[in-house]
Amino acid sequence: MSEPAILLTNDDGIESVGFKALYDTLSEFADVTAVAPATDQSAVGRKMSTDAVVAEHELGYALEGTPADCTVAGLEALCPDVDMVVSGINKGANIGAYVLGRSGTVSAAVEAAFFDVPAIALSMYVPPGGDVPWHEKATDPGDYRDATRAASYLVKHAEPAGVFEQCDYLNVNAPMAEPSGEPADMEVTYPSEMYDMTASYDNGTVRLHDRVWERMSTGDIPDPEGTDRRAVVDGKISVSPLTAPHTTHHHEALDGLTEAYLD
Question: Domain 5-193+222-259, what fold?
Fold first, then answer.
């Protein structure tokens, strides 16, 4: 069996620790081509460019663009014959329904779905607390080993098992590995619907604040079993099978409203 060809991208940038950890892991059994942003493009969603300067990189290509740019550029021009798009590993979880459209990591996988290419988005939850701010943690490739282990398993087995016959992409969130901890369990989940954004206005400035992360650090979350957030807080690897196009349903009330439009 020939090795799978993978387009690897992310939103933290091609030089990020999580990206390199994933590249090295997948390269053990796959032909991996990096097509990733040259700089951090976190939380840009599916923002697109019309032109993106490309530079050759030892891992593949670095784009002056967004994660969605990277997927399109890779599948259309730079490495068009890949079997799968993998996006990650993002430093920080991408969990909850409200986050999916914001995340550059997830958006790269969504973009692949419109090319009918299977995709996996991978992120790692970095718990807050302690003397070190969360964004200064996870600086060693070993911190990502639960995420890289999950990535290897899913890249090898998801498509042969028929997973992508029922979904377009997988949104995977792993806990940050403990120095001497056992491998985390894996659980199929769905995106949590919890939303706790707040805004305050003071002297000409509106401050937007996402309280969900603070609540996660204390365990103060209402998310039930089966949600992505509950799985991650409980130290499990969350795997959410998702579809990319927005779903539509027949609405009789809207039928009546449109029929009466010019009456």
Answer: Stationary-phase Survival Protein Sure Homolog; Chain: A, (3.40.1210)
